[in-house]
Structures are given as C-alpha cells and as structure tokens.
Specification:
- By secondary structure, the protein is an alpha/beta fold.
- It has two domains: about 40 residues, no CATH class; about 130 residues, 3-Layer(aba) Sandwich (Rossmann fold).
- Helices cover about 40% and strands about 15% of the residues.
- It contains eight helices and eight strands.
- The strands form three sheets. Strands 2-1-3-7 form a four-stranded parallel beta sheet, sandwiched between helices.
- β5 and β6 form a beta hairpin.
- The longest helix is centred in the N-terminal third of the chain and has 14 residues.
- It binds iron/sulfur cluster.
- The site of iron/sulfur cluster has 11 residues, from α4 and α8.
Length: about 180
C-alpha cells in the first residue's frame, strides 16, 4: 500500500521546498482563495496521498486493460507510480489468490470513504456462478467494494452499458454497472 505523501513524492523527484510553495501559491490564487489560505493549502497538499484505486474486472475481454497499458500520456507506469496507488487489479497486480483479495480488503479498510473503484466488464445476474473471483460473485464483489468508495468509474461499453455480453439473447443476464449503482451528476 502507498504510504508516501504527495510532498514526499515531489521531493523525491527533485522539487524544492521553494518550488512546492510557488505551486501552492499559484493553486491558491487559481482557486480564488485569499493569500491567508496559503498555509492551509500547503499543509493539505503536504499530507495528501495518492488516491487508492481498486480496479474490478468482471465479464470482460481484457481489452479495457489492454488499452490502459498502451496509453502514452500518462503512461501506465507514470499513472501507477506518480498519480494513483493501484491497490487491486487482476491483470496488473503482482499478488495472487488470498494475497490479492487481502490487498482489496485492506485498501477498503484503510481508505474507507476515499478510494476510487474502476470497473470494466458487465455483471451477470442470471446465475452468480457465471463469473466469480475468489469464489465471490461479481455482484457481491461489486456491492462489497463500492460500499466505501468515494466514486465509481465504469470503463468501456460493457461496464457502462452492458456491451457484448448484454446483447440478445444475453444468456448470463448481463447488466451494466450503471444500472446497479445510482449515478450522480
Ligand atoms: S468494453 Fe467490453 S468488449 Fe470492449 S474492450 Fe472493454 S471489456 Fe472488452
């Protein structure tokens, strides 16, 4: 799990204290806050950590992840090492089995109310056994994981609209994430 703060990360990349404060000043001004708020902004940024992300892959073809690994700006390495803490992702994580599930549970516990959930793939409702991870049905894992999430992001047409698995005759009873979780503008 990522314990490094944003400031520590910037320091590692050679950003000086002076550069950091200049950035805070610009940000304070950009947000139209009074100059007196500068210490508050600096303090908040100093202690901020990269957001934890739990990526769930359900009835999918790995194409969404393939797209992610081929991104150029940012690259997937830049994204993982500099911007987010990718705590769970079947295809990209090193851990497997119990270790992988432990990482997901730990991330939920440590970041409750603050982590992001990314989902690719649809969810089968016809029969829970059609798609399971660690013996947990996709629906149960989705419900369990989004309970403490700050936001849920549906990636690709399968997660957003049901995609190919949802096509007639839809043998698995595939539905989109958005049909199961209320969407807030
Ligand atoms: S949206 Fe569905 S079909 Fe398209 S790449 Fe993602 S998982 Fe595959």
């Amino acid at each position: 799990m990522n314990k490094q703060t944003l400031y520590e990360m910037l320091q590692q990349q050679g950003v000086s204290r002076r550069g950091f404060l200049k950035y805070c000043t610009a940000l304070t001004s950009l947000m139209a806050l009074p100059p007196a708020m500068l210490p508050t902004v600096a303090k908040a940024l100093e202690s901020a950590r990269r957001p934890s992300v739990i990526w769930l892959s359900f009835q999918e073809c790995t194409g969404c992840t393939e797209s992610l690994t081929r991104s150029h700006s940012p690259t997937v390495e830049g994204l993982i090492f500099d911007h987010i803490s990718l705590d769970y992702h079947h295809t990209l994580q090193a851990a497997s089995g119990h270790g992988a599930e432990h990482a997901r549970e730990q991330s939920i516990k440590e970041n409750y109310g603050k982590y992001l959930v990314v989902v690719d793939g649809s969810i089968p409702l016809a029969e829970p056994g059609y798609s399971t991870i660690a013996g947990i049905s996709n629906l149960d894992m989705l419900n369990e994981t989004v309970a403490g999430a700050a936001a849920v992001i549906a990636v690709g047409t399968c997660a957003a609209y049901g995609g190919l698995p949802h096509a007639d005759p839809n043998p698995t009873g595939a539905v989109s994430v958005t049909s199961l979780i209320s969407v807030h503008p």
